[in-house]
From TrEMBL:
Source superkingdom: Bacteria
Residue ranges crossing the lipid bilayer per the database entry: none
Listed name of the protein: MmcQ family protein
Classification lineage: Bacteria, Bacillati, Bacillota, Bacilli, Bacillales
Species in which this protein is naturally found: Gracilibacillus dipsosauri
Length: 120
């Protein structure tokens, strides 16, 4: 299982970024931002599964990432990669971290989001 701490270690090591917690109402929501301009490339949240159309009563950690629209339908599988929660569903996806395969493509998707949102 991939955890939010795994994500935070990865982005610090690879992009030099640390999570930012800008929401006083949701102190556990962490934004991943570019150092240069503060633009978001990821958002880690803990939400109830019902908000995602999933079963369960306990909150789950999710990661929202930017993704090219042409890949969204291919990646979304209804299990661990879903339409974006609380973001533009055409350009963003949601990964359910506890269901994500740690040996899968998660870090490649983070890299893709990082470069899609990077200023030119």
């Amino acid at each position: 299982m991939l955890t939010r701490e795994d994500i935070f270690k990865h982005v610090e090591a690879n992009y030099g970024t640390l999570p930012d917690y800008p929401f006083s109402k949701f102190p556990n929501y962490a934004v991943l931002r570019h150092i240069s301009d503060g633009k978001w490339y990821g958002l880690v949240m803990n939400v109830l599964p019902e908000k995602l159309g999933l079963d369960g009563n306990d909150g789950v950690d999710i990661l929202n990432l930017k993704c090219p629209p042409e890949l969204n339908d291919i990646l979304r599988n209804g299990k661990d990669i879903l339409p974006a929660y609380h973001m533009n569903k055409e350009h963003w996806i949601t990964l359910v971290l506890e269901r994500a395969d740690p040996k899968g493509e998660i870090y490649k998707l983070i890299e893709q989001s990082f470069y899609l949102t990077k200023e030119s």
